[in-house]
Amino acid sequence: MQEWPEPIVRVQSLSESGTGNIPERFIKPPSEREAAQLVPEMTKSIPVIDVGGLANEKYTYSEETMRAISNACEEWGFFQLVNHGVSKDVMEKAREVWREFFHLPMEEKEVYSNSPTNYEGYGSRVGVEKDATLDWSDYFFLHLLPENQRNYNEWPNLPTSLRKMTEKYGNEVVKLCMFLMEMLSMSLGLDKGYIREAFGGDDNGACLRVCFYPKCPQPDLTLGLSAHSDPGGFTVLLADENVPGLEVRKGDSWVTVQPLPGAFIVNIADQIQVLSNGTFKSVEHRVQVNSRKERLSMALFFNPKGDVPIGPAEQLLSPEKPALYPHNITFNQYRQFIRQKGLHGKYQVESLKAIVTDMEDDDAVMGGGSGKKRMRWTPELRECFERAVDQLGGPDRATPKGILKTMSVPGLTIAHVKSYLQKYRMSKFIPESSDGGKLEGRKFSEILPNFSSTSRVQITEALQSHMEGQLGLEDQLEASFLDI
Ligand SMILES: O=C(O)CCC(=O)C(=O)O
């Protein structure tokens, strides 16, 4: 998509207009904006990890630090990193220069206005879905790695020190990310170089999003950033020391992060959750805004190379711990989802759990890829599926093709949709059949007549082409589907 689906309104302009009421588009449903709850004392804050001496060439990773990291990543998916070696001066100046940028006249910033093609530049929304509810923030997004994507001309030329400062900051934080990759690998019990290798060696990606959250006249009705998990490898965040706002999910509660002076907040993102086979958690987080103070944060997303398939590390798998994410997909494929839909909690990474390899249940065995797979639907995937069917106008209109398109779940195939139909008989959606009998217990071919004739043709075509491609069963399929 070349352009945003609706004209862009800068949140900063809305804030500065002095309006007492935020536009309808920013009002979140009550379930999304429940206040952070008080949680027991001991779980009140994300762990703090001190890696003093990291910048020293001779730094050795102590077992204690590795244990602290693995506990933090398993339990919280977040930690604060102190004594990390990045110069305090560089951190402060980078933050300052970006604050100045957001306070430039609007026409200076609009020069860098971004589009959904690569997001680089000045932006005010993430997803491209028309009529989506929006977040109360503007941002600037830029690429740091791979080097060939770093385009200084796309970075603001004002304030004059911004490009130099951002480059310096980026280089220092990327260096820290190299250590973090080693630390995360070792705290998973893997070789020091495992993550780096799995993420594409020297071709890792890194990008920076500077988020600006203007004052909001009705902060209780909206969010600065909706709940989401980060799609890439991990994130190194320089939060606003003076204005809290970041909240991390802990069970059913939201815990407010209190950034320590000079600390970075590190969080595991979806690709490391996959690589660790779910041991390290990519945890949902969101941002609250307030009426008195603006807030600025700088998130550096460290990502795998776009075209390397990411899957659980073999060494972490066993018969007791089978692969939760057996379909290795690339980060590029994964990112498509976010670009389409914007930020949606843990929707996408949970969807990848849908399938486990198992040969026991013949009924649900599907072909495709290497070997045969048995489908297992998690509650999360069921929820996505149900939402997709609803979005498509209910069971009468939903077709497997439409469902696949709407869900945009990487790795999901028609075979999974078919499996769902078989396993759950779509009892929640499919209206009772004409004779009034429930669909429960019926075969797939018996369910199809409950769809409209147009949908039936589409379902048949979609299933047929998939099965032909995957299983080479043309003849059989012709017989079983086309006479419905
Ligand atoms: O502003 C913050 O504290 C968090 C930013 C964030 O979560 C993001 O940019 O993905």
Automatic annotation (TrEMBL):
SUPFAM superfamilies: Clavaminate synthase-like (SSF51197), Homeodomain-like (SSF46689). Gene3D superfamilies: B-lactam Antibiotic, Isopenicillin N Synthase, Chain (2.60.120.330), Homeodomain-like (1.10.10.60). Residues 203-304 form the Fe2OG dioxygenase domain. It comes from Dioscorea zingiberensis. Keywords: DNA-binding, Iron, Metal-binding, Nucleus, Oxidoreductase, Transcription, Transcription regulation. It comes from the Eukaryota. This is Fe2OG dioxygenase domain-containing protein. Residues 369-429 form the HTH myb-type domain. The lineage of its organism: Eukaryota, Viridiplantae, Streptophyta, Embryophyta, Tracheophyta. GO terms for molecular function: DNA binding; metal ion binding; oxidoreductase activity.
